[in-house]
Amino acid sequence: MLENFMKSKILVTGGAGYIGTHTCIALYEAGYDVVVYDNLSNSSREAINRVSTLIGQTIEFIESDIRDAEVLKQVFASHEFFGVIHFAGLKAVGESVSKPLLYYNNNVGGTITLLEVMAEYNVKNLVFSSSATVYGDPENLPINEGSPRSCTNPYGQSKLAVEYILEDLAISDNSWNLIALRYFNPVGAHSSGQIGEDPNDIPNNLMPYISQVAVGKLDKLSIFGNDYPTVDGTGVRDFIHVTDLAQGHVAALNYLEQRTSSINHSDMTKPVGFLPINLGTGKGTSVLELVFAFSDVSRQAIPYQFTDRRAGDIASCYASADKAKTLLGWQAELSIADMCRDTWRWQSMNPNGYTKVV
Ligand code: NAD
Ligand code: UDP
Known about the structure:
By secondary structure, the protein is an alpha/beta fold. It contains 11 helices and 13 strands.
């Protein structure tokens, strides 16, 4: 029964980022060993320091780019990884429109380099950060994993391109086990208030914008459109607490471990291939509903104005979360109030994110 005492080691690319830091904590709590690999292009050492403080041990951190095959090879040569959770990527939709080559190079090129090195070192278990953006403007709601995929911007195309690459890889060689987790709208922060989302500039996304209005850094929220065919005319999204999302990654790894375990001779040992899974709550919340919930929890006024729709936005998007429940035994537990409370705690404890607070 030695296996029970041996921790599987996981390489976490992009582990210094928003979702990566929360997932590192969840992985430690679940008994995994973690090595973080990040070029800090959209994150900071302080985030890693805080993760180390929260878990009570120094996290192993390599500051490097996933496009640097030589460094990656050294890392794979010096560790025995069970698998990789691959968060590293650029994620700003607007920037991807103005810098498409950067996005394809980083998100697609970087993933190819990572996969090549994984193949060389025979590490063939991967959990990839995909996105609900691959569904484009969905024909049916809730969105299930069989829905058609289409994207309208280079960021989304880069996620879709990686999904196609993973599918082809699984077809070419059935020893690969590749899970693409399609996140809906991750929000919230660690319940300690020590780690959270730290956008570089003025936030593009709704929740960090609301919280910066609440804390007084921004004057008022612009709500992009109040004439959508939704409950109150504003956009509807499936907001999911980042802690639930992090647990979804642990569940995906547990699933891969069961499916690839040589001691388990049941049906579970069949190859996983390429497996896309939604991570969402299954519930839609409108922009206005989120604003009111945040205001309630924080007891702050959130001034807002209605403006034109934002180009490229869709009316409604929420997940069917059945596949994650059936296959991974995972479902989101935390409420919209929890998401607002934890975002507010992080924002008010760290009004300037990681940079200005010791
Ligand atoms: P984030 O920017 O906070 O984290 C990404 C991390 O990857 C950062 O720490 C960044 O420094 C690192 N990175 C980027 N390019 C790299 C490279 N070439 N080499 C090494 N490190 C690199 O973003 P996040 O919100 O934590 O998102 C994580 C992943 O999930 C991304 O792939 C993103 O596209 C995807 N995703 C995010 C959302 C969301 O709303 N946050 C939704 C769907 C999918
Ligand atoms: N939104 C808004 N004002 C903002 C940012 C976002 O009204 O400052 C709306 C946006 O139009 C969408 C929802 O909030 O209906 C979620 O937007 P976000 O950018 O957070 O996520 P995504 O568009 O990727 O789902």
